[in-house]
Structures are given as structure tokens and as C-alpha cells.
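User: Structure with manganese (II) ion, C-alpha cells only please.
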Amino acid sequence: MKTSVPEPMEKAFSKAKKMVETAEDIKIYSHIDCDGITAGAIISTMLERMDKEHEVEFISLDKIDQLKLENDLTIFSDLGSGQATEKLSTSSSNILILDHHPSLRGRDFNYSNIQGKFLEINPLFYGINGSHEISGGGMAYLLARKFGYSDLSWMGVLSGVGDMQNSLSGKLEGLNSMILQESIQEGQIKSINDLAIYGRQTRPLFVALSYFGDVHLPITNNKTESILLLNKLGIEKKNKKEHRKLCDLSSDEKGKLFSELVKMLSREVPQRYIKHIPKLVLADSYEFLNEEPYTPLRDASEFSTAVNACSRNKRADVALNILKGDRITALDEMDILSKDHRRYLAQKIEVIENEDMIISMENLQYFEGNGIKSEVIGTIAGMILSYGDWKKPIIGFTQISDENNDIKVSLRCSRLLAYDGIHFGHIIRNVAEKVGGSGGGHSVACGAYLPADRKEDFLKLFNQCLNNKLST
Ligand SMILES: [Mn+2]
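Assistant:
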């Protein structure tokens, strides 16, 4: 795995730098998710420092085909590789793509028919994996770094975490780790090997523990059991009046909790998964030292959730302002959006759970998300997994939007299934294509779009594909 930028890739970034320097005005289209918004923030901050006229717009992938390019330079960030962006080129508008998703063109594409300048930089062209070695924000940072802005590296780290690039190994690897090191050198981040429990800075520990969901444990969705566990280990629940958070624990206390979680997990999982247990419990955490302790901005993983809360409520602008430094107005707005977001998720999950809406098939389980906003169907699938059978993947369905009754599908599963060698991102792509849709994504978190009437076929095929693949 490469932990420095290969020479030919550096050269491509040098060309990109020139394109930026010579452009009069620049438009940035970036993906509307945590990675894409952070990428947009990096590029926008960079251009602002250079006094370059520019505008950032966050879009979803299906909007790209209809774009009309009017600026000297258009930068596609965290998207553009998987779309026919070369068709948008005109003689007066140059295109720069900084993406990490699979490219339709590849490195040897013949650009001779394209009128303007067209430069696509994609890690896959240089043998670098785009799902765990570098994110869209990472690619944006590699450009900013060419201009000497290594203080933007913390956003490169945030985008890697937001894109779940560290989710399987528990740490940032490859070029992500290079970006992390630069950020540590800048004094912006502290990285520690930590317990893999979400909510380090803001959730009372017993609440955080109750969300442990990769494998169903007695503490899962059970705050009483979580409190009992802490009592048993002699871990204080409060500092004076405040509930303690994971970040308050001593390494001795974390050690006790680690051993206990490993013990509990060993009781629950089939033999062939046992060797993977430590990976479920340990992960590096990234703390932003310039942010206030006990706020969601202090921890990379909580920060990325807050950015997602904005984007899923179509308020990417709020997240952008925070990333660019607003800690006053935008922070209040983000707070409200996050609360609304959590409330919305909790309500939907309660309905699914109370009305027994999880339907089990031989190799998978699914639920009908009728009415759930398509932006959050994945988040809900991930949360609902802990109420179902963790040994099978869970699939959620919902309508794409009020105007479009095609189906959005999201799949989530325990990381144990991925450690066991299953890549659901690949499976869902194949199955979706067979029923006239499209799909893809990570091994444990992926999705697809399907024609409105093909849900049953999709389920049947998917279930068949998994025959003999899961441990029971
Ligand atoms: Mn991305």
C-alpha cells in the first residue's frame, strides 16, 4: 500500500495546479455527502486564500448529465469519474475531475475528441484503492497541498472517516494515513488506539454502549444492561454530576471494557468468526484538538455524522460553513439539524420495530421503508440491524422521491460478514443490474436503484446469490 503520492500522480496534480492558476472563474460540483461536502470545503478554502472567483454546488450523481458548463474551469469532486463528464466539455470550459470512484474512462482514455482541457485524477489510475486508501476529500486535499495548504489536512482525515474508509481495518491506511500524519504534524489531530464505540465525546457511556450493534449482545438496545455492565467492571458512570463519556475513561478502564466485550462477543459468534472479534472492538479514533471537548466536532466520527445530518436534510450549506470555520450561526443550525435528524430516525425505527416490519428470508432480511426519506434509508437500515438477526444482511426499500417511484435500496450488515470475505457492494451491483437497476458501494454498506416493479425479483435473486455463503 502506498503511503506517499506516486510520482506520476504528483505530476497530474501539478497539471491540475496550473489549470487552477490560469482559470479566471471556477465552478465546483461536489457530491452531496460527508466526503463530498468536505472535499468542496477544502477546494473552496484553497481558492478563497488565492482570491479566485468560485462557486461550490453540491449535487447528486443523477444531476450530472444535465449540467451546462459556463465557467473557465469546472472541478468535479468526489464524483465525475463514473459519469460521462467528457461529453460536457466545450472549447471554452476546462474540466478537472478529482474522484476516487471507478472511472468510465480509465487512464488510457483517448481524449483527442474533447474540445477543452480535460484532466481526470483518480487513485485507481495509480494502483491505489479508492475505498480504503483515499477519499474524495483526500483527493481535494492533495491538490490543496500543492499550493502549500497542509493545514487543510484535518479535513482530508474527516472525509476519509465520513466515507467509512477506516471502517473495516479500524484505521486510516495508505494515502489516508499520510494525510493523517500531516495533520498530526500540524498539531490538529490526536490519534489513539481506542474502543470502537460511537459517541466518544457526546454520548453518556452507558448510552453509547447500548448502541453496540455489529453482533447482538445483552447490552444492545438495552441501557439497563449497559449500566449493569459498567457496575460489574467498577467503572464510574458519572464525574460528579456529569455522565462520563468514552473519552473520560482511563486506559485501564478501557482495557477492562475491551476484555469484557471480547468475552461477551466470543459467547455469541460462530467459531469461524472468533478470530475477527478484536477488530469489532478496537479502532483508532481521531480527535480534533482545535475543537471544543464534549462537542460533536471534537471526534472525527461524530463530526461526520453531523455533516451527514446537514446533507440529508438538504442543508449542505450549513456543513460547508462549519467546515470553513463558522462556529457561531452555523453551529446552532447544525445542532438543530442533528436533533431533528436523530428524532426522525428514532421515530422511524420505533415504527419498524413495534410493528415487526423486518421480514426474514433464508439468507437475508428486509423491511419496507414506505415513506422513509431515501436519503436516510441506509442510516436506518444500519440502526435496525441491531433489532434483527446480525448473521444476515438487512435490506431497506423506499421510494426514491415523491416524483420518482423507482426504488432506492440500502444494505447494511455486520462487519463480521465482510471479514469472512463477502463483499455486498459487488453482490448488490450484480443483482441490481440483472433486474434493470444499478448499484454498488462498500462491503458492509451499499445500495442500489431499482425499477419500481422489480423488488420481488431483486429479493429472490439476492437471496439465491447468498446460498452457502453465510455462517449460521
Ligand atoms: Mn467519496
